[in-house]
Amino acid sequence: MPRAMDLDIDFVRAQFPAFSEPSLKDRAFFENAGGSYACAPVIDRLTRFYRERKVQPYAPYEASRLGGEEMDEARMRMAHMLGVETEEVSFGPSTTANTYVLAQAFRQWLKAGDAIVVTDQDHEANTGPWRRLADAGIEVRVWGIDRDTGHLDPGGLDGLLDGARLVCFPHCSNVVGEINPVAEIAAKAHAAGAVVCVDGVSYAPHGFPDVGRLGADIYLFSSYKTYGPHQGIMVIRRALGERLPNQGHYFNGDTLYKRFTPAGPDHAQIAASAGMADYVDALHARHFEDHAEPGARAAAVHDLMRAHEVKLLQPLLDYLAARNDVRLIGPRDAAVRAPTVAVEAGRPGEAIAEALAHHGIMAGGGDFYAVRPLTAMGVDVGKGVLRMSFVHYTAQAEVDRLIAALDHVL
Ligand SMILES: Cc1ncc(COP(=O)(O)O)c(C=O)c1O
User: Is the CB of 94 under 6 A from ligand 1?
Assistant: First the structure.
């Protein structure tokens, strides 16, 4: 039975060496959507790999065997948390590299005249590579967002599905922040005979999702934003992965997780990814008394993280919505969005971020490679937005401090 409780923020922060790092002391971190701090288990595994196992893995000597086993462990434990098969998880250099490779596979698989659907809510990584398929005679249909709110209306997809083979959309945009109903959208696309590719990069840092339940055929996220090493993690469900043409060495084509990762794997970082599962398990053990399955543990930790985030986010949204000198992008209700908050302020977002830095706030400004969403919402991309993003390890006092600093700089 779970011990009903709030997230133990002191325990959480103790798992992140950055919070006891002298050079980061007295700085409140609000650029987590660009990349999170790494948790201790990841750093420990990475260090151990470089010290003790930095040899070609899967050879019959101890250091190599341990290195290979740790890489396998990472793939397996991530798969368990994500609710998919171990072979369905691949590690690539980044989500952007992963989508470019996937687009090559679809270029070979689709026929001229086939249609695909892309959005203008996506980061460029999950839209640009797909739009380039137009060069191969693929019809590219754009599922547009609301100009005022950035909302992606699932109803807007209905008229775009006839003859579509692929629908690409984000679980959550890195500037709008709204959480899209992935299961509902995937069901619609599947009913029309299309497969779906979901960019989960801006969602996964707020709790690993059950990808199996969401119904995505492809689900992508970047582990450097989920407390891990700099990798792109990609779930490709077997039914699709075995049909798409292999993009790796021809003799590796029978191994699902090698088919869409032609770059040689970064052994140490793959191994260190098991540390993300260690972290989720440590949070689970701290907050719950049961010994649930890995997927159930990840789900419980996800909910714990989200509850903490929602509690801290609402006052920030209320504060920004009440100001008449900024345009708050995305929903004002914390329950339906991630704590990735962009505002348009009539001057360059980067200049405001710089002013915030003088108050000990680490935030970012610019377009965040969300040029299409910002343009679609009428934002001047030359100025961009100020983005303040946090995660579950953020403390109430840091949000209070951000609001006080905004009072000075806006
Ligand atoms: C929503 C979203 N998708 C994709 C990416 C690209 O990820 P990567 O840096 O791993 O290529 C980012 C990076 O910021 C992002 O925010």
Answer: yes
